[in-house]
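User: Here's a chain of 47 residues. Predict its fold as tokens.
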Amino acid sequence: MTQPTPVTASSPPRRRGLIAVAWLWVGAPLAYGLYELVQKATQLFTR
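Assistant: Prediction complete.
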């Protein structure tokens, strides 16, 4: 039988790139949505 390899805290470089792309995929629209929300809320409460 083989021993399972221990899981380390650092990810392989290829996986890090994938994680970065996934964060951008979610984070960019989220940031844009929050930006739009703040703009519209500002317009709503300043008029």
